[in-house]
Write a structure and sequence with these properties.
The protein is an alpha+beta fold. It has five helices and three strands; from the N terminus they run ααβααββα.
Length: 113
């Protein structure tokens, strides 16, 4: 195996573990990475994952992050619309929870063999 800062050679790095991506897959993964490319969203995602990916209310995330509730809701909507979070409403309380499957898929796509 090559040292961490050594450029890969053909024998040490030959393909993505998921194989050649279709145009549709490349578009889908690009959209997911685009949603994740926002620092506020990454911070909120790390807060959601901190407690074992259990559901957390929008107000709790706003308090923990120091962001306003509308800002938190905006970012959570982007993550939810991308299929990275689930959303549950109980009365006036809305909670979000990390969906692990899309993240496992992204890890697989990026893994080099």
């Amino acid at each position: 195996m090559a040292a961490p800062n050594t450029p890969p050679t053909a024998s040490t790095c030959c393909s993505l573990s998921a194989g050649l991506l279709t145009h549709a897959d490349a578009d889908r993964y690009a959209q997911l990475f685009k949603v994740l490319a926002d620092p506020a969203r990454l911070r909120l995602l790390s807060q959601l994952a901190e407690d074992g990916c259990g559901p957390i209310s929008v107000s709790e995330l706003a308090t923990q992050s120091g962001l306003s509730q509308p800002t938190v809701s905006h970012h959570l909507k982007k993550l939810t619309d991308a299929g990275l979070l689930s959303k549950t409403r109980r009365g006036k309380t809305v909670t979000h929870q990390v969906l692990p499957a899309p993240f496992a898929e992204l890890r697989t796509v990026l893994q080099m063999e």
